[in-house]
Specification:
Number of strands: 10
Radius of gyration: 18 Å
Strand content: 15-25%
Order of helices and strands: EHEHEHEHEHEHEEEHEH
Number of helices: 8
CATH topology of the largest domain: Rossmann fold
Structural class: alpha/beta
Shape: elongated
Length: 230
């Protein structure tokens, strides 16, 4: 499989390494080579089976518009752009392209979200309050993290509530990512935590997602809906 990786940050580099380890042909574009998406012409994009984006909230929308307009397949690991999700879904459908997005491609994180739903469903009528904390490296641009927002949405849905769930965001040294859901009552406290000791699970999940996407018909896919197939 021919994979184009956009972004040469820590996760983007690891995505390229994992893809190569899995036997794929990989080409990487950094921001200087792809200023304002200029490198993503239709002939260039056509040379790849799938594009994986791990750039920045500022760059990802330009990249998506350029790639999806060609009818290509694209996996988005970048967060911080979901206010434009409906626009990108519409573009994908109009161009008969393929888009697979998610705030976190780690299988472990996706399992945590499922467990969070189960915990909330069990405890929501037992006098518990719920909150979320997330800790990331200081270079992470979006706050709270996209994963924390996704967890909060799962909590709200399980509670059948429109109220916001408190999220504490912490930025410190080189932390790959820690997410904790706290359920607290007057007599006890339950903590559900996912602690990423490496970015590798994110990268592996993204590459597996790309492998899955190239076999599917055009459309828009959420990692939460397809993670069991990866």
């Amino acid at each position: 499989m021919r994979i184009l990786v956009l972004g040469v940050g820590k996760t983007g580099k690891l995505v390229a390494d994992v893809a190569a380890e899995r036997g794929h042909s990989v080409h990487v574009l950094d921001a200087k080579e792809n200023k304002d998406g200029a490198a993503l012409t239709a002939p260039f994009v056509a040379g790849f089976d799938v594009v994986i984006d791990f750039t920045t909230p500022e760059a990802v929308l330009t990249n998506m518009r350029a790639v999806l307009a060609t009818g290509a397949k694209m996996v988005i690991g970048t967060t911080g752009w979901y206010d434009k999700l409906n626009d990108m879904k519409s573009l994908t459908e109009r161009r008969t392209a393929s888009l697979l997005y998610g705030t976190n491609f780690s299988v472990g994180v996706q399992l945590m979200i499922k467990l969070t739903r189960q915990m909330i469903t069990t405890l929501k009528d037992a006098g518990y309050s719920f909150s979320i904390s997330e800790t990331h490296h200081t270079s992470k641009l979006d706050s709270p993290s996209g994963t924390a927002i996704t967890i909060a949405e799962a909590v709200k849905k399980s509670l059948d509530s429109i109220d916001d769930v408190p999220i504490e965001s912490i930025r410190t040294a080189d932390v790959a990512g820690i997410h904790t859901v706290e359920a607290k009552s007057s007599g006890d406290r339950i903590l559900l935590t996912h602690d990423s000791t490496s970015r590798r699970p994110f990268a592996e999940g993204a590459v597996r997602a790309a492998e899955w996407l190239v076999k599917q018909k055009p459309g828009v896919y959420d990692i939460r809906e397809v993670v069991d197939h990866l």
